[in-house]
Amino acid sequence: MDASATSKLLVSDIASVTDHVPSNYVRPISDRPNLSEVETSGDSIPLIDLQELNGPNRADVIHQLAHACSAYGFFQIKNHGVPEKTIERMMTVTREFFRQPESERVKHYSADPKKTTRLSTSFNVGTEKVSNWRDFLRLHCFPVEDFIGEWPSNPASFKEITAEYATSIRALVLTLLEAISESLGLAKDRVSNTLGKHGQHMALNYYPPCPQPDLTYGLPSHTDANLITVLLQDEVPGLQVFKDGKWIAVHPVPNTFIVNIGDQMQVISNDKYKSVHHRAIVNTDKERISIPTFYCPSLDAVVGPAQELINEKEDSPAVYRSFTYAEYYEKFWDRALADCLDLFKVPNDPKIV
Ligand code: OGA
Ligand code: NI
């Protein structure tokens, strides 16, 4: 390992000067991507056309959502209402941000997960043992006016484009939440009403090309801590979803988003809907950009299984206790992407076991 690489904060600046993966990014043999075993052509996640949500086939779409959320925890959406131009501008400005000189990018660097706008690397450099081949800019973005002042001023159009994108994605999320509530047999505004003042974060993920992609991850297997995630990705594959004991590669489709259920939705649905493991792998010759929007409760919101879905006498007792999202979120950042849901389960009643 050469000295110039070790002194750098960001993996993008290490990747550009090394022909091997530095030892702090190398996973133990039992925890490597095993890329030859990944399913690349068979099963994939469902594709749902949201156009039909506003027509006579609404019930059919709701049914497709219920199936996707319970069987996969993941789906793709088309005709989602976010303008192509908005998507393209967001992707372009993200690429421009990461192409800026190191000196410009590191102005935003912080390892503190509590900061509402920050550039960082890996996942949580303060707690993890092995690093990940990813840099990211993480932004809180709802309400936009509370945070836009902190966002990068370079590229010059960054704030405007990101605000437009975040606003457009929020409208899409609210539509999805109504449909998902309905698919659980709940009132349309039920899920949205449990989120306090609501929160929305974005990550702009930058995965540099990697000389030995079989030794490391862009992001290792994890579930998302938030309620629901809407992921925009460029044309370079990398996302993989765990299904029936296998990793499935998700092929990027232009102008679609990938949506996945997060831990909070699993809790609210009392385990009807699944927050599924997924990971990002890297490749030797292409950089990859992905932009997840993490929609979440506000920190003060109290989350727990919806009462309507609990029946202690029958077969559906509450699986989780109630907690504030602040409590959950803190655990998530502390635990270096290890699962958190189990920490919030109601202990099994010894009389029943
Ligand atoms: C994430 C994530 C996947 C990707 O940021 O939580 O799962 O494809 N990203 O970048
Ligand atoms: Ni994720």
Automatic annotation (TrEMBL):
The GO terms describing molecular function are: dioxygenase activity; metal ion binding
Fe2OG dioxygenase domain location is 197-297
Q: Which domain of life is it from?
A: Eukaryota
Q: Which cofactor does it need?
A: L-ascorbate
Which Pfam families does UniProt cross-reference here?
Answer: 2OG-FeII_Oxy (PF03171), DIOX_N (PF14226)
* Any GO BP: defense response to oomycetes
Q: Which reaction equation describes what this protein catalyses?
A: salicylate + NADH + O2 + H(+) = 2,3-dihydroxybenzoate + NAD(+) + H2O
Query: What does the UniProt keyword field contain?
Result: Dioxygenase, Iron, Metal-binding, Oxidoreductase
Which family, according to UniProt?
A: Belongs to the iron/ascorbate-dependent oxidoreductase family.
Protein name, please? Fe2OG dioxygenase domain-containing protein
Organism name = Microthlaspi erraticum
